[in-house]
Amino acid sequence: MAYKKKTKKQKQKIASAIAHVKSTFNNTIVSITTMEGDVLFSSSAGRLGFKGSRKSTPFAASQIASTLAKEMQLVGVKNLEVNMQGPGSGRDSVVRAFQSAGMTVSMLRDVTPLPH
Fold first, then answer.
1. Rounded CA gap, 86 and 25, in Å?
2. How many C-beta neighbours within 10 Å does residue 76 have?
3. Average pLDDT for residues 12-21, to the nearest whole number?
4. What H or E segment, with its residue span, contains residue 82?
5. Distance separating alpha carbons of residues 104 and 116, to the nearest angstrom
């Protein structure tokens, strides 16, 4: 059996990404995707250990954003577009936490579905 050389895995270098924030009355979920829609990172308040009514607080949402910002800096993300969905209280604090972590928020978009 011949020896095969293993190729070293390349780290992804992504300059810009999209943050999809779904904020409900019970939880806040944030997914980071590439511009094409491939999911890079995802987190929620329940994943960080918040339980019950503490999951829907703005503090929990800012903690989600700060942990995701640390992971995004390792990949090289600098520019960020934010799509916000839902009526929850964590929408604004996610954007503030991304900006305080050094991300450049280029676009804020509200994608909450409305009946017509």
1. 8
2. 13
3. 91
4. strand 79-85
5. 34
